[in-house]
Amino acid sequence: MPAYRTDRSYDWNYRHGPCLTGPRPLVPATPLKDFLGIAVRSRLGIAAGLLLNARWIEAYARLGYDILTYKTVRSLRRDCQRMPNWVFLDPARVDPLDPGQRFRLAAARPRGTAPAFCSVSFGMPSKEPALWMADVARARQALGRGQALVVSVVASPGPGAGRREMVEDFARLTAMAREAGAQAIEANLSCPNVLTPEAQIFNDAALSAEIAAAMRRAARGRPVLLKVGHIPDDGTLRRFLRRVAGKADALTMVNGFSRPVLDRKGRPAYGPGRESAGILGRDIFAPCVDIVGRAARHIARERLDLALVGVGGVDGPDRAAAYFAAGAEAVEMGSAPSFDPGLAIRLKAAHPEW
Ligand SMILES: Cc1cc2nc3c(=O)[nH]c(=O)nc-3n(C[C@H](O)[C@H](O)[C@H](O)COP(=O)(O)O)c2cc1C
After folding, report:
1. Which mutation among 6, 12, 50 tests ligand 1's pocket best, with the greatest number of atoms within 8 A of CB?
2. Domains of the chain in sequence order
3. CB distance 256 to ligand 1 below 6 Å
4. Could you give the CA distance from residue 79 to residue 9 in angstroms, rounded to a whole number?
5. Which of 117, 274, 289, 353 has the lowest tally of Cβ within 10 angstroms?
6. Atom of ligand 1 lying closest to residue 190 CA
7. 3-state DSSP helix/strand/coil percent for the chain, to nearest 5?
């Protein structure tokens, strides 16, 4: 049984999760190291998504994950999209150059802790700010020494809102997250399953840089991260890195790939209007680690002031090692910790230096 019950609603999982059973395992003691100026027991963490609230953060902190990202919140309440929100796909090779590539639901849900290839579509739901701020404060209280709380935020531009409103909303959210207890704030500039303008900001380097600069002012010394989607073209990637370096502290790369997801009969698996959704997990590893390597080389060559956090398809030590070798400062897991909560313990036991 995964920690997130995919057969239950987001609200059910928010209220009752995570479904973790058994005795509390022993986490290997590891020395402190630096993550963007924060002392952490490891540079291993959970990306924005699985950690729905303070209870989830506390449970996974006890399991030895040391960089804990609170699922993306907004400056207003937003309901979750209808179920399903998390489905399993037939294995495939993800081609980053083919956005028309389609994926089919798997015939059966994988069992046990086996790494999965999956897709999610939540629509970035959020509780109202007063509620999530109080909950972020609880999450911060629950962390041990050497653990860092990152809060992921996204703007909610209303009809007719322009760039200024978008930038201001990100800055306001940064101040709110900081006040609530976030040690770092991450802007989600890429959501593969919503169609509104906030979902693809990373394609606009100038706007991304403006957002980073405004967030940095509001963060008052706390690190600012930008979560981006895949940028296949190397020139575009280089221009993006130049624009945001020195404004954001780090990039979290990359978010799930937005692709059509079909059921076994070839119909949109999430229903009409939600044809495309985020593809993630086991099978996105290769293109994700590749872009981290390319970005790291540009950063080194041009001596840019920017760190990288690697995400995508990590389910064991070899894949985490590949991200560190590619130049990532830290490695995060999105979906695997739901099926395999003990992953951080195994990674830390094998690599206390991470
Ligand atoms: C249940 C779930 C919810 C997610 N929600 C968010 C989100 O709110 N914000 C975000 O930036 N990414 C979200 N993601 C994407 C993850 O942060 C991560 O980029 C993605 O899962 C790829 O990592 P993986 O291959 O290790 O799963 C979510 C992922 C999952 C599994």
Report:
1. 50
2. 10-350 (3.20.20.70)
3. yes
4. 11
5. 353
6. 11
7. 35, 20, 45
Closest Cα partner for 69 from 22, 26, 35? 35
Tokens, residue 265: 């009969």
Give the distance (Å) from ligand 1 centre to CA of residue 311.
Answer: 9
281 Cβ closer than 6 Å to some ligand 1 atom: yes
Choose which residue among 6, 67, 120 to substitute to test ligand 1 binding: the one with the highest number of ligand atoms within 8 A of its C-beta: 120
Nearest-CA residue for atom 22 of ligand 1? 312
Given the DSSP bridges, would you call strands 250-253 and 148-153 parallel, antiparallel or unpaired? unpaired
Q: Tell whether pTM > 0.70.
A: yes
Strands (E), 154-210: 184-188
Distance 305 CA to ligand 1 centre (A): 26
Q: How far is it, in rounded angstroms, from Cα 282 to Cα 319?
A: 10
User: Across the chain, how many H-helices and E-strands are there?
Assistant: 10, 15
Could you read off the pLDDT tens digit of each residue along the chain, which spans 354 residues? 899 999 999 999 999 999 998 888 899 999 999 999 999 999 999 999 999 999 999 999 999 999 999 999 999 999 999 999 999 999 999 999 998 999 999 988 888 887 799 999 999 999 999 999 999 999 999 999 999 999 999 999 988 888 999 999 999 999 999 999 999 999 999 977 776 777 789 999 999 999 999 999 999 999 999 999 999 999 999 999 999 999 999 999 999 999 999 999 999 999 998 999 999 999 999 999 999 999 999 999 999 999 999 999 999 999 999 999 999 999 999 999 999 999 999 999 999 999
Residue with tokens 């990202």: 69
